[in-house]
Amino acid sequence: ARRRRSVARRAIVEEGRANQADLLILSLSAAMEMFVDMYYTLKDMRARQLAHQTLNLAMIVCSALAIWKSLMVVTLSESPVVVVLSGSMEPAFHRGDILFLHMGYTPFRSGDVVVFKVADREIPIVHRVIKVHEKESGEVDLLTKGDNNAVDDRGLYPATQSWINKEHIIGRAKGYLPYIGMVTIIMNDYPMVKYVLVGLMGLFVLTTKE
Amino acid sequence: MARGPRKDASKEAGAEGAKDSTKEIATSGSKDSNESADSNSKHPKDHQEDFIPKKTCLGDSATMKRMLDDAAIKVLLDESELGYEEDTALSNVKLIVGFTGVAASLVSHVYPLSFPKNWWVLFACCAGYFICAGILQLLLSFVELESILVTRATKDASGKSTPGFTLSSHFPRYQEIYTLGITPLPKGSLALISLPKYEPSEERKVGGPPSFGPPGFGEQHWDVTKFFDDEGIFYEEKFCDELRSFFKAYESSVSKKQS
């Protein structure tokens, strides 16, 4: 009886392995067929049709660009959507959250969460304003600190600078989406993902039949 | 012994599984393309090396319509037989408007001034882009509709010129009747804007002769199951023959009405 069971078990395992191999072969052959078909579609197109499909692809890319630029126009900030990269604002914002920025017209006050860029650092920083000095000339001096940091940001400013001003500020955080920014962080860390995704999208748009 | 027959049974099951999998791979084109939206595949016929037939999944209406339309356009524009020329005015307008919009958005990206000094440039470029995209969309939704080709006016050997026409195709999703209609267009493709949407006539007499109503019009319905077999292979030559007879009948009806 034990021998019968072990033989049956071996048969099931072998069949399982055969099924896995089948699945792999099927999916690979389907992918190959798709790419071969795309090649033939592009080859058979008349020049005018190809121009129209290229225009389609360009319009899609440019509409994304135009939407980004119009967000810049409306929110008055250089980068209307940013991704939080560090954990210095926990528990309010975590690494991988998306923030929507808006410059606003109201004066800056303590408690505002601002994104600013200082002279020798490329990457903007998201921290909270803790001190505000408004001078008679209209200039404003601000001091910032991350909620999760032990000290204020004077260590991050350039050596001669103790305060930041309005021109360093990119915008105030007005809204946020949790976790979605992880996609941007992944694409930043592994640029191959970016190229592969964009390449695939381009191929699909050029060869679509609708 | 108990072991013997059972082992043989499992070996047979393994062999059958392998046979099934090879059959599955051969027809995987039709099965797998059921899942993806826009797939068709070509596989070489066994006995003809250069001729690769077109094949599609039978449920993929968009690809089928595209194949039928391409065949109709190919037959019409073929120099050796019917030799019509394409009227490219509307297509050129679309291309120019489209690439203007693309250029506007690219300018907004590469303009040398930094934010916020370039606010007005950005505003103008975005406005320009959205206007161009709007015009393109209007052209697509209200002017082009079902037309797949517009031809230029042709001059007969005797010097008589017949106006160009627009070829419209009608092939609703998941249905089997493909209709080609010819509507005369005396002023060229830009006049498409004044044409109403092409509606095929109510009674679809499939397989019947083409109908030529008012002068210059023509229409014929085909059952697509005659040109696609069970596996989805498209018999282009057969369809092209039908198309040629339709267009020749149209030409003779036009010259009859003119004379």
TrEMBL record, chain A:
Compartments where located: Endoplasmic reticulum membrane
GO molecular function: serine-type endopeptidase activity; signal peptidase activity
Reaction catalysis annotation: Cleavage of hydrophobic, N-terminal signal or leader sequences from secreted and periplasmic proteins
Annotated EC: 3.4.21.89
Residues covered by the Peptidase S24/S26A/S26B/S26C domain: 69-172
InterPro entries recorded: LexA/Signal_pep-like_sf, Pept_S26A_signal_pept_1_CS, Pept_S26A_signal_pept_1_Ser-AS, Peptidase_S24_S26A/B/C, Peptidase_S26, Peptidase_S26B
A family per Pfam: Peptidase_S24
Assigned protein family: Belongs to the peptidase S26B family.
Protein name: Signal peptidase complex catalytic subunit SEC11
Organism: Chrysotila carterae (Marine alga)
From TrEMBL, chain B:
Keywords assigned by UniProt, alphabetized: Endoplasmic reticulum, Membrane, Transmembrane, Transmembrane helix
Residue ranges with Polar residues bias: 24-39
Lipid bilayer topology: Multi-pass membrane protein
Main location: endoplasmic reticulum
GO cellular component: signal peptidase complex
Basic and acidic residues bias: start-end ranges: 1-23, 40-51
Membrane spanning stretches: 95-113, 119-143
Localisation: Endoplasmic reticulum membrane
Region: Disordered, residue numbers: 1-51
GO molecular function terms attached to this record: peptidase activity
A single GO BP: protein targeting to ER
Highest taxon above the source species: Eukaryota
InterPro entries: Spc2/SPCS2
Family: Belongs to the SPCS2 family.
Role, per record: Component of the signal peptidase complex (SPC) which catalyzes the cleavage of N-terminal signal sequences from nascent proteins as they are translocated into the lumen of the endoplasmic reticulum. Enhances the enzymatic activity of SPC and facilitates the interactions between different components of the translocation site.
Name the UniProt record assigns to this protein: Signal peptidase complex subunit 2
Species in which this protein is naturally found: Chrysotila carterae
